[in-house]
Amino acid sequence: MMRKVETPPALYRTSGQRFADWTWTKYAKLPDATNGYAVTRDLRIPMRDDVELVADLFEPAGPASGTILVTSPYGWNLYGAAMTGGMFACRGYRVVLVRCRGTFGSGGTFEPFMREVEDAADIVAWLREQPWFDGRFATHGYSYLGFTQWALLMEPPPELVTAVIACAPHNLGAFAHPGGAFLLSTMFEWSFVTTKQEKPILPRMAAVLSARRRIRKALAALPLADAAAEVMGGQAPWYREWISRDPGDPWWQRADLTEALNRVRVPVLLQGGWQDVFLHQTLAAYARLAARGVDTGLTMGPWTHAQGGAAGTRVLLPDALAWFDEHLAGSGGRRSEPVKVFVSGPDQSWRDLPAWPPATAEQILHPRSGGLLAAQPADPGATAEFTYDPADPTPTYGGAFATQVSPGVTAGYTDDSALASRSDVLAFTSDPLTTELEILGSPVVELGHRCDNPFADLFVRLSNVDIQGRSRNVSDGFVRLDPSTPPGVVRVELDPVAHRFATGNRIRLIIAGGSHPRWERNLGTGDDPATATKMRSSHRTIDLAVSRVVVPVTPPPWT
Fold this sequence. Notes:
- The chain is α+β, with helices and mostly antiparallel strands and 559 residues long.
- The model has no long low-confidence stretch (mean pLDDT 94).
- The protein is built from 14 helices and 23 strands.
- Helix content is 25%, strand content 30%.
- It has helices spanning 15-27, 78-89, 116-128, 144-152, 172-176, 184-196, 201-210, 212-220, 224-232, 237-244, 260-263, 279-291, 305-308, 313-329, and strands at 10-12, 37-46, 52-60, 67-72, 94-99, 137-142, 160-166, 268-275, 296-304, 339-343, 349-353, 361-368, 372-374, 383-388, 425-429, 437-441, 444-451, 456-465, 471-481, 488-493, 497-501, 506-512, 538-554.
- The protein has an 11-stranded mixed β-sheet with strand order 1-2-3-5-4-6-7-8-9-10-11, with helices on both faces. Strands 12, 13, 14, 16, 17, 20, 21 and 23 form an 8-stranded antiparallel β-sheet that branches.
- A hairpin with a 5-residue loop joins strand 10 and strand 11 (349-353).
């Protein structure tokens, strides 16, 4: 039984809070606020190990339409509290903002992603005992705040009626190793920035900005674990664990919440971005929930992880509010279709769909000699070659990952024209399209791949080359190979995509031996990448006659 703790007095929102709420209302184009609210700060939530978490309660003036629970390791400044708490509280919802263990005044030690299942259950046990709790609640949150929702859904409480999970993982180990290699810059930068997050804003900004060159140097240095420790100064002990553990190591099991996808029964709205680092796990969650018949909504926008929390809020916050109005308050109408996706390209627009992916037809393209991508297969015996040197790794140009502070590294859609001119990259470009071509789904690239080194990576990309000759990334794929990889054709599934190629544009296929620092480089030795320093290059031969690109296309008209 949870022990009783004294409740601090409620305070009505300040003029600063009102201004922050008004700002978010205008920025996100939300409906007008309907009421004021009071805030009770620093509620104490007892955990089973005698640690106490800290929470703030946003109580609307007048009857509440329901309770929304949000659990975060990032704390809340004035505008963060308005976005996660105030915007719902001033529209009739009671909101509980909980700070994760070991962050912003909550007791215990912060162990990212490892303690959230037990803590989520204890938060709900505390919630049940509160005099204002009416027996029903929903959850909401973006990124890590979505992971804490999956943690709660490992043992879904009967009081939970719905969840809105935005741009979030449910399996840390798999997320940290997409394609089998460590997601280097994302995991490094998140760890570094998190160690600075409780500093005042100006010292925090100064600490992050002043470290940019050191971070870039550390991402390029070997061994990786020691280079990271030097920059982080021992403040992120979890990072050495992350970079030292293989994806199949049982250590990751505490942060694998995949089973929650089989246990959730309440309606769930999943929100993501085509260039978000959690793209694959968002769509995997949708596929599993939809297959089980769970009432599942999906909204996919064009943004990166950072953009989704900024410009993307103009879509995501009204979307979440409408979902809560329907499923928590019972006052809103249903979505016109379960799935809403942004289709990039000419006449870029939002599209409502009954499911993802929609029905499509396969279109086959073949890389050919002379750097051409065409409908006709290459001649038998035709090959193309390149050499990957880990001492000068192929650099990252855009893509669906997260970057915050690394200079010269850009996530999302970007001009990747320079990739095609590198000697360690193969590029195959189609003739100008005579009609528009729309791709909805996951392209697949099949490569007849031979290598003089069994320890190798393959990075594959489709890009859109416009009529001015500028190339922009559309969809990426990556796979790590080792001596157990069967010889012959390597199949690489690329990122899911919703994109239309314009008439006159060209499709480009990029093949390389890596993308650094998005992924750790393959040193070519099979040694532990966290501690190794020796490197060995790899020479690749692509059998063009058995290689092809399979794209899922939709016929016009597009609506």
